[in-house]
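call fold(seq) -> tokens
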Amino acid sequence: MSYEPPFNRNDRIDSLSMEIAELVGMIPSDAPLARSPVLHRELRIKTIHSSLLIEGNKLGSEAVTAILDGKRVLGDSHDILEVQNAKRAYDLIPGLDPYSLEDLLLVHRTMMEGLVAEAGRFRAGNVGVFDGDVLIHAGTPAAYVSEVMADIFGWLKDTGMHPLLASCVFHFEFEFCHPFADGNGRVGRLWHTLLLSRWRQVLAWLPVESTIRQRQAGYYAALAESDVSGSSEAFVEFMLEAIRDSIMPFASPQSEREQALARALKFFRENPKRNVSSLAECLGCSKRTAERIVAELKGKGMLSRQGSARSGSWIVFEDNGY
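ret:
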């Protein structure tokens, strides 16, 4: 019989899932979260900084930014290596298979190289998670880790559960097994982001780790509650709330003016040889209004004209935030 993680949906989980789906639907395909390399870079820095802070890394956001820019930074060499490794691990996301144990081991090896002796391998010894001297959770016995992880990945690949919920259940199951000697938290959070990105690509950049960092005590409390109950509802609820709250700043409806600017950029991106009159026709506005929109985009450095009015073309700058 194939493995089925203990999990029972409830009204709160269903409500949060519907709310998240609605918020995701409010993010247009040309929104900054989907298209802006500048925003992507800022969010990835925020994600790496937050995830490592949870694990005790002492570097500030400015130092993390400098390291990712290839600059030399004064600080603990271990902390610096953690940042460098995390950057390389998150860069792997587009090419990862979320159902591959080999890819999971690749991520762990990348994330933990030079930090632990067992980088890229499941642990050989038994482990426990402690709060001071108190054992909070005992991981799966080492002899069974490979088998348990194969069961979890088999379930993840074959389940008919909605991918949003499956990502949260997987996150708990992963942390419950605790398959590595170290690095379980940061790898588990990265894999959760990977799973969300395969549901909706735009979520690859969502800084969920930052929200978890802000609620770190609640994160561990939810893990502990689900651990004690033997079922993942408490943790799933926590993660759904974190995902919802991470999406909200990016899902606010645009004003009519912002929509017009975004549509104008999209028009010229797809039709660089077309003129302002064609833009007016596309937007359903007067030529004078279209001219004002073009002037505003030029003034903001989002749009420029190359060549003559008759034979030239429009250039849209991709880092424009629209």
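The chain has 15 helices and four strands.
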